[in-house]
Amino acid sequence: LDAIDSSIAKAAQKAVADLVENPPAPITDMRRADEHRTCFVGKNTKKMYGEIWADMPATANLQNRANSTSSFFRQRANMDS
Q1: Distance in angstroms (rounded) separating the CA atoms of residues 81 and 74
Q2: What is the pLDDT along the chain (81 residues), one digit of tens a residue?
Q3: What angle do CA 14, 19, 2 make, to 5 degrees?
Q4: What is the pLDDT of residue 56?
Q5: Are 14 and 77 in contact (CB under 8 A)?
Q6: What is the signed CA dihedral for 69, 74, 80, 81, rounded to 10 degrees?
Q7: Fewest beta carbons less than 10 Å away: which of 7, 37, 54, 81?
């Protein structure tokens, strides 16, 4: 397990090295990201309230911001399987 931990730690350091040197813009809103606000209701309920819910992040099908997902960091650390 120590070898695995060491390998992951090295990969993580490598994955974020350039982000440490050139950090992204600071986060100004610490609330849950709109991309992660999803609506778990049936399609008929969505249809019924579609117009009312039109401007809600939960129903807007927003795309993830580039370079912000766990797969982005796994790829940078060469940890994709």
Answers
A1: 9
A2: 899 999 999 988 888 888 888 887 766 666 666 666 666 777 788 788 878 887 776 666 656 556 656 777 778 777 665
A3: 30
A4: 73
A5: yes
A6: -90
A7: 81
- Residue 77 in contact with residue 11, Cβ under 8 Å? yes
User: How far is 78 from 81, CA to CA, in rounded Å?
Assistant: 9
Both tokens of 26, joined, read 């600071």
pLDDT of residue 5: 92
How far, in Å, are 8, 32, 58, 62 from residue 45 at the CA level?
44, 24, 13, 19
- Tokens standing for residue 38: 């999803």
Of 31, 25, 28, 37, the closest CA to residue 66 belongs to 25
Structure tokens at 76: 């940078």
